[in-house]
Amino acid sequence: VVYKRERVGGVNVKSPVAILLIVQQFNGLWVEVGEGARAVPLAGHVGFDSMPDQLVNKSVNHGFCFNILCIGETGLGKSTLMDTLFNTKFEGEPTQHNQPGVQLKSNTYELQESNVRLKLTVVNTVGFGDQINKEDSYKSIVEFIDTQFEAYLQEELKIKRTLHSYHDTRIHACLYFIAPTGHSLKSLDLVTMKKLDSKVNIIPIIAKSDAISKSELTKFKIKITSELVSNGVLIYQFPIDDETVAEINSTMNAHLPFAVVGSTEEVKIGNKMVKARQYPWGTVQVENENHCDFVKLREMLIRVNMEDLREQTHTRHYELYRRCKLEEMGFKDTDPDCKPFSLQETYEAKRNEFMGELQKKEEEMRQMFVQRVKEKEAELKEAEKELHEKFDRLKKLHQDEKKKLEDKKKSLDDELNGFKQKKMAAELLQSQALQAGGSTTLKRDKERKK
Amino acid sequence: MPTPAVPAACQVEKTVPGPGMGDFSYVGIDAILEQMRRKAMKQGFELNIMVVGQSGLGKSTLMNTLFKSKVSRKSVQATSQEKIPKTIHIKSVSHDIEEKGVRMKLTVIDTPGFGDQINNENCWQPIMKFINAQYEQYLQEEININRKKRIPDSRVHCCIYFIPPTGHCLRPLDVEFMRRLSKVVNIVPVIAKADTLTLEERDFFKQKIREELRANGIDVYPQKEFDEDAEDRMINDKIREMIPFAVVGSDQEYQVNGRRLLGRKTKWGTIEVENIAHCEFAYLRDLLIRTHMENIKDITSSIHYEVYRVRRLNENNTAVAHANGLPQHHMTSHEM
After folding, report:
1. Which end of chain A is more exposed for a tag (fewer CB within 10 A), N or C?
2. CB-count exposure of residue A70 (10 Å: 0-12, 13-18, 19+)
3. Paired sense of beta strands B45-52 and B9-16, if any
4. In what residue span(s) does the Septin-type G domain sit (chain A) (predicted)?
């Protein structure tokens, strides 16, 4: 039986009887609300201490999901480290590096350990840092992260939604692989991390750290940390507000960035097979804390803070994205009266506006098309008409010619006929004349005889 | 612009053996359970229970018995005299209780005046209004641009409906109320003051009630349609066989067989509240608190609240479509 004192809502609840009765009105119905909840002692075992167990059971049945983004230049051992962290061989063969620009390749795996099922998504940046001009390298990464936030936001804003069974693809942790130069951060690193620190939990790690000696490593870590601080890059800090893990987390915070070595090959050390990298001069054991910080990384990332990483992503990074996105779309919180509508309403209105514009454009294009068709049609009609006219003219011409010719022919015929007639007449005359001549001659002779 | 590959669940299904196999093969994924537990303990839990029933059915006493402390409204009331109010009042009292490091903010919502009038028509309306107002409050907060990290949950998770122990059947008021409210909130019906019924009468009464509930299509908690898998169904079927629980409440302890037990002392014997041979209080307590609390809250948030939200958002859409010019904030007819 525990008696608790609590400072609740600005009222110092000192005695168990001190309560604040606030009366609220719910649409004409007076409701007395005992605000400033008081602490009451329990007289026996009630049983709600099983609540955390109930919650955990529900989560176990549901399964968990965790999404890691690995950013780093080609050849820094990103895939190997993932294999080592989760003790499994993820990808079949190494990715092709023949695409221009930075590609993000995402793979989802189902892992199970005792009764916990984890849906792990590993996103790899392919070709990061390979370009000659790296100015835009970070853009595709930012776009990818934003796309996942957008997908979640869309689901949350839907009218009929299924958040319960939604597969969360938002990036919970971003492992930034720093090349083990031993000097300082590259400007690409600073720029990329700066662009990402407000969108995702960044955990910088020094990759392939077996290339750096111990003394160089200490200097390197200090240099990196000071560069990050001076450039205002906010990397993920392991939470120290919960007493259970505050100590270990704050110790680990001091060791950032972790210097890691990854390996899936096993070497026999003593009588155990351990994950290690074998060199002619010695063997680097991955799980040896003197050799590298791999164990620390695994401890922090998976065994202690996985849930906190998920929570930070949801309550901080996602909320920021959501706030910015909604403000960008023109929503405001100022008018409490029409709020639930303004969000949905304005969203719908904007969408309708957009659709309207789209339709208008479509209409315009259609009109233009119709217009063009009409014009072309008119043109063609015109041409057709012209052709017809020409044809008519030619025909007429032809007919005229024909007529003329016919006239001529007629006149010729007439002439011919005339001639014929004349000829006939002449012939007749002649024959007559001959007869008559005979006769006429006779006649003339007769007349002479007379 | 390069597009990310569509994630597909790969066939790699790796079962990693537990920590006993030596550190190098143990990844530590199952440590997330511990992390969740820590987070839950730090955040604490919220539970809002509403009790509905006529005056004198022992609602306040039952609440006190359930949570083994003075959590009912009577304990915070200034006046000791109980006057039956002329209309239904809604009285909500919050308490912080803690057990073994688990903190809970318990809110008990009482409804004095329910069913006490001569004409009880529409007495469910203020209760419906209240429940919907809580959903509305949550919705408003959820829709905010700048919203709180943890939205305070004032939604009614569970409504315990007290049936008077007549021994015959449900009254029309009971049927009406449960029919309407089972659509918006989880209803747990209980037979109040069950020490006035013999075991046979009790069984008969329960059977009658179950029949009537079925005949009227009233789905009380645990609802058949929300059973998740075969295991759930099995457990819930057993519970469904037993509802409504016949309960007796008491906040006074008596000496029985050398032990101090909560009970009611009468001339013919002492009724032990937590003895399952005497009454079914223990089953109710186990259901509500020890086994199904999370499930009750889950159904409230993922089903009842979502139904409200869908209706509300659709309403706005039609209001916008008709460009009505109605004052947007007033509660339209959600009452059924």
Report:
1. C
2. buried
3. unpaired
4. 62-328
At A5, is the pLDDT very low, low, confident or very high (cuts 50, 70, 90)? very low
Rounded alpha-carbon distances, angstroms, from residue B318 to B18, B90, B324, B336: 56, 32, 9, 20
Q: Do A48 and B16 touch (CB under 8 A)?
A: no
Contact A127, A102 (CB under 8 A): yes
How far from the centroid of its chain's Cα atoms is residue A251's Cα? 39
Place of tokens 């776009």: A143
pLDDT given at position B320:
56
Query: How many Å apart are CA A269 and CA B175, to the nearest integer?
Result: 75
Residue with tokens 């003329």: A404
The full length of chain A comes to 450
pLDDT confidence tier of residue A353, bands split at 50, 70 and 90: confident
Give the ipTM.
0.80
Among A126-130, A164-168, A432-436, B138-142, which is the least confidently predicted range? A432-436
- What is the predicted pLDDT for the residue at A34? 46
Bridge partners of A285, per DSSP, are A276
Give the distance from residue A222's alpha carbon to the nearest chain B alpha carbon, in angstroms. Answer: 29
CA atoms lying within 13 Å on the CB side of residue B211: 8
Rounded Cα distance between B80 and A212, Å, is 78
Q: What end-to-end distance do the CA atoms of chain A give, in Å?
A: 194
Q: Is there a contact between B7 and A326 if contact means CB atoms under 8 Å apart?
A: no
Contact B289/A at CB under 8 A: yes
CA dihedral A182, A184, A185, A187 (to 10 degrees): -130
Q: In what order do the strands lie in the sheet with B253-256?
A: B253-256, B259-266, B269-272
CB B265 within 8 A of CB B195: no
pLDDT digits (tens, 9 = 90+) for B275-308: 888 889 999 999 988 899 999 999 999 999 999 9
